[in-house]
Amino acid sequence: MLIEGKPRGLTGLVLWLILLIFIFYIPFMPLALDKALNVSFLDQDGNENALVFFGFRGCSNVCPMTLSTLRQLLDSQADVTQWPQVVFVDIDANSNSTQASDFAKRFHSSFVGLHIPPEELTKISGKFGLNIKQQNNQILHLGKTYLLRRKANDWRLVKIYNPNSFSVNTLQNELFNLIN
């Protein structure tokens, strides 16, 4: 049946296809925003940008892949002083600062590894939307990487990268535009 020269079913089908494409594309999109954060664990001196990843040492897939991608990003640059400081935050309640630092440095000598006490991590979790669940050695987390930029004395959340959209090329292009 035609309505004003257009098949009625075709318009509906096209709208459904657009909706489906949008729904399935969302998890792969980096999220851009500009949200002020009070994060005491980040250094107030030095680099103006930070890539922060919340993970744990016993993770078998997302955490090592993310840190490897961040290492590849730094290894591909001639001058890494322009690039964000990479900060690995160990979310395992059974860990400590030394273990977190050692784990981060296994991926790159410039990486900073931190362990935040559970009380502080709970506060930070809400700010970053971490949704961490730990039961004994089982830890569930989202595996997102956060790009933060310092403006004056405040750190601002600039972008959130999903593990599915996280690549060296994406980071190089976006960080080059951010820095220059």
Structure in words:
With about 180 residues, the chain is of the alpha+beta class. The chain has a single domain, classed as Glutaredoxin. The protein is about 35% helix and about 25% strand. It is built from five helices and ten strands. It has helices at about 10-25, 60-75, 95-105, 120-130, 170-180, and strands at about 1-5, 5, 30-35, 50-55, 85-90, 110-115, 135, 140, 145-150, 155-160. It has a six-stranded mixed sheet with strand order 3-10-9-4-5-6. Strands 1-2 form a two-stranded antiparallel ribbon. Strand 4, helix 2 (about 60-75) and strand 5 form a beta-alpha-beta unit. It is globular, with a radius of gyration of 20 Å.
Secondary-structure map with pairings?
Layout lengths: L1 E2 L2 E2 H18 L5 E7 L11 E7 L6 H14 L9 E6 L6 H11 L4 E4 L2 H11 L4 E3 L2 E3 L4 E7 L2 E8 L6 H12 L1
Parallel strand pairs: 4-5, 5-6
Antiparallel strand pairs: 1-2, 3-10, 4-9, 7-8, 9-10
**Average pLDDT across residues?**
79
How many domains make up the coordinates?
Answer: 1
Counting helices, strands and paired strands, the structural category is alpha+beta
Task: Please tell me what the overall shape is.
Answer: globular
